[in-house]
Amino acid sequence: MVLNTAFAYPASAGGDVTGPITAPPPQNGYHFASTEDHVRIVSVARDAGDQDKITVTLVIDPGYHINANPASYKSLIPTTLTFDGYELKRVIYPKPYRFKLKFTDEALDVYQGTEVIVAFFPSGSLEPGTRLRGILLAQACTDEICLPPAEIVFSK
């Protein structure tokens, strides 16, 4: 089940025309699906030969995809890797797959299954043993729906 977090009331309803709708806390064991349920960071590795390189491996559940970087359209949320307190020299995102949604004529560039993102930091900016806090911004979708985007936090 997916909950839309924004709703526009018709002007004829009176009062506020638009406003956020917030879900009540889960009750009776119900859980609203989220991107984090379907996209997981499974490995974060620092290259022994290049201390300024971090490899992040993620797994996207079967039946789901996330938008490529760059995203196919300006209105889509690209998958983005960042690290708190560090500017990246370069990020290499995986080669995308072309994916056709049921509700559109155009195919999109997406990531599916197991994917690897490689981040390069400026030379010498990471001391050995440096603890990093990374954030993967992603939005899990199927061929019919998209879940709310999420920042998936990890550390290395």
Fold blueprint:
Layout: E1 6-8, E2 18-20, E3 39-46, E4 53-60, E5 66-67, E6 80-83, E7 90-92, E8 97-100, E9 107-111, E10 114-120, E11 133-138, E12 150-155
Antiparallel strand pairs: 1-2, 3-4, 4-10, 5-9, 6-11, 7-10, 8-9, 11-12
Note down, in words, how this protein is organized.
The protein has 156 residues and is an all-beta fold. It has one domain: Immunoglobulin-like (Sandwich), CATH 2.60.40. It is built from no helices and twelve strands. The strands form four sheets. A four-stranded antiparallel beta sheet has the order 3-4-10-7, with no helix packed on it. Strand 3 and strand 4 form a beta hairpin. The N terminus is likely disordered.
Structural class: mainly beta
Indicate the low-confidence ranges by residue numbers: 1-24
What is the helix fraction of residues, given as a range?
A: under 10%
Main beta sheet, described? 4 strands, antiparallel
Separation of the first and last Cα atoms? 33 Å
Count of discrete domains: 1
Overall residue-averaged pLDDT value: 81
